[in-house]
Amino acid sequence: MKQIVPLGLQHVVAAIVGVVTPALLVSNVCNLSPADKTLLVQSSLLISAIATLLQLFPFSKKLGSGLPVIMGVSFAYVPTLLAIGGEFGIATIFGSQIIGGLVAIVVGIFVKKLMVLFPPLVTGTVIFTIGLSLYPTAINYMAGGKASETFGSPQNWLVAIITFAIVVFFNYYTKGSMKLAAILIGMVSGYVVSFFMGMVSFDSVAAAGWLSFPAPMHFGIVFQPTAIVSMVIIYVVNAVQTIGDLSSTTSGGLDRMPTHDELSGGIIGNGIASVIGAFFGGMPTATYSQNVGIVIVNKVVNRIVFGFAACVLLVAGFVPKFASVLTTIPQSVIGGATISVFATITMTGIKMIASQPLTPRNTAVVGLSVALGAGIVQATGCLQLFPSWVPTVFGSSSVVVATLMAVLLNLILPKDKPEANK
User: Fold this and answer.
1) Could you tell me which of 227, 289, 200, 281 has the C-alpha nearest to residue 26?
2) pLDDT tens by residue, 37-95
3) How do residues 145-189 score in pLDDT, each as one tens digit?
4) What is the pLDDT of residue 207?
């Protein structure tokens, strides 16, 4: 027990910021009330714990991987969640999430046949685009949030830069648990600074209770075809990323590659967790790469350790006071801490792209996909004369266009001859 607690808390520290930050981003875009914002954070903690427990202790070989992983609300979905939430509202997010989760289950069943569409070149392009698309969000938050009356003020930028500097310091000048907790330390430090600058209000904390369970269907569920299309594409991409994380976990911690049943069960389990989460206000989950990194470093694969971490998140999810404290974090602190996360996502994509020969064909797949994906979104109004569903699907998230183009170009462009790779 003496080892389980510190090892489990290490995983909680590495995951906690990632679990709650997407909920904070989405709640601001959807203009939720302080109470609903707290509930969304609370639900994110709960669904992350449930998804983790489902992976650790599957009901059968097909309903979870049985591998030592931590699941949490994923940043990979954030660009699409922000686009859907901003246009249609939070109920539409959960409606499209249900369909996306069901599609993930299908992908898990037929994972072997579908993998041919997502080689490292395509997956890397998509992940690279996800990172790029999140940069404006981080910068807007560093400036205080667009809806804030103090947007762009020196005060906001000072807090953001202090937070950012602390994250960078602990990331690159420390080792062990301090390095793993760099983002958490940065956010706590930035929070303290912002508190003394009068930027923190505890009104929502005073109003929050000590114990409650998220009510089913509180946010509602709306099915919007265009939003569903966008979400389904991201779920398919995330399934591929799940395979990468599970493979890293088994190779780094168990000295073997995952079995087909483990990969299939992992994707199916995540799909089931997403469907369940939609009914309780928990957003899409994914394997957490930062926790995979801990497994690779310390080689601890005891599922009890991960189960303890999941239970800590579960208990935290039942305490609105805790969730409400997290909602008081100023947006400039969130921006200063998360821009390094978004940079890491981008560089992960670049590494995957660079793992393939950068031939003219491969660079065309990457370059054209990113150009169209990022270009269409940034060229505001370029699709305004099309039917309304077109700009919703293709003009709100660069990830959707980049994914479709990368898959299509990789299929139709002539393959490189063997000598071209030498």
Assistant:
1) 281
2) 888 888 888 888 999 998 888 877 678 878 888 888 877 788 788 888 888 888 999 99
3) 776 777 888 888 998 999 899 888 988 888 776 776 777 788 888
4) 65
Q: How far is CA 154 from CA 145, 187, 189, 401, 422, in A?
A: 13, 18, 18, 36, 52
For residue 158, what are its two tokens?
A: 């000072």
Q: What are phi and psi of 295, to 5 degrees?
A: -60, -45
Nearest Cα to 124, choosing from 410, 338, 326, 394? 410
Q: Mapped to the 3 state alphabet, what secondary structure does the chain carry?
A: CCCHHHHHHHHHHHHHHHHHHHHHHHHHHCCCCHHHHHHHHHHHHHHHHHHHHHHHCCCCCCCCCCCCCCEEECHHHHHHHHHHHHHHCHHHHHHHHHHHHHHHHHHHHCHHHHHHHCCHHHHHHHHHHHHHHHHHHHHHHHCCCCCCCCCCCHHHHHHHHHHHHHHHHHHHHCCHHHHHCHHHHHHHHHHHHHHHCCCCCCHHHHHCCCCCCCCCCCCCCCCCHHHHHHHHHHHHHHHHHHHHHHHHHHHHHCCCCCCHHHHHHHHHHHHHHHHHHHHHCCCCEEECHHHHHHHHHHCCCCHHHHHHHHHHHHHHHCCHHHHHHHHCCCHHHHHHHHHHHHHHHHHHHHHHHHCCCCCHHHHHHHHHHHHHHHHHHHCCCCCCCCCCHHHHHHCCCHHHHHHHHHHHHHHHCCCCCHHHHC
pLDDT category of residue 422 using cuts at 50, 70 and 90? very low
Per-residue pLDDT reduced to its tens digit, 339-361: 877 787 788 788 888 888 889 99
How far is residue 341's CA from residue 287's CA, in Å, rounded to a whole number? 15
How does pLDDT run across 385-398, given as a tens digit for each residue? 888 777 777 776 77
Sequence-ordered strand ranges (E) for 309-399: none
In the prediction, which pLDDT does 293 show?
Answer: 62
